[in-house]
Design brief:
about 100 residues, globular, alpha+beta
C-alpha cells in the first residue's frame, strides 16, 4: 500500500517532529537532518506488512550518509530502540 500525497506528507511531518537519531548523546531530529521524507516513503511502501515489520524494514532501508558521504549506515543503527516503538505507534493508524 502506498499513501496518497496528503497522507504521505502527514506521515513525514509526524516523523520529522517525533523521531531522532542519537549521535554522541545528541538528538538529531529527522526533520532537522532532512531524513523524514525518505523514511516516510520507505514506510509507506511497507504498510501492508504491518506497523512492526514496516518500521524495522524501513529503518534498515534508509541509508544515512556520514562524513560527507564517505560512509553510510542504516538508520536503524543510529536510532535508539525506544524510537522504534515510537515509529510503530506512528505507523499503526496508517496500517488499517
Amino acid at each position: 500500500m502506498t499513501l496518497d500525497p496528503t497522507s504521505l506528507k502527514e506521515l513525514q511531518t509526524s516523523l520529522a517532529d517525533r523521531l531522532y537519531l542519537q549521535i554522541a548523546g545528541w538528538h538529531l531530529y529527522l526533520g532537522d537532518a532532512g531524513l523524514a521524507e525518505a523514511l516516510a516513503i520507505e514506510c509507506s511502501a511497507r504498510l501492508n506488512d504491518g506497523a512492526g515489520v514496516a518500521a524495522r524494514q524501513a529503518l534498515e532501508a534508509v541509508q544515512v550518509s556520514l562524513a560527507g558521504g564517505s560512509t553510510k549506515l542504516p538508520m536503524a543503527r543510529l536510532m535508539p530502540a525506544a524510537q522504534l516503538h515510537d515509529l510503530e505507534e506512528i505507523l499503526e493508524p496508517y496500517c488499517r
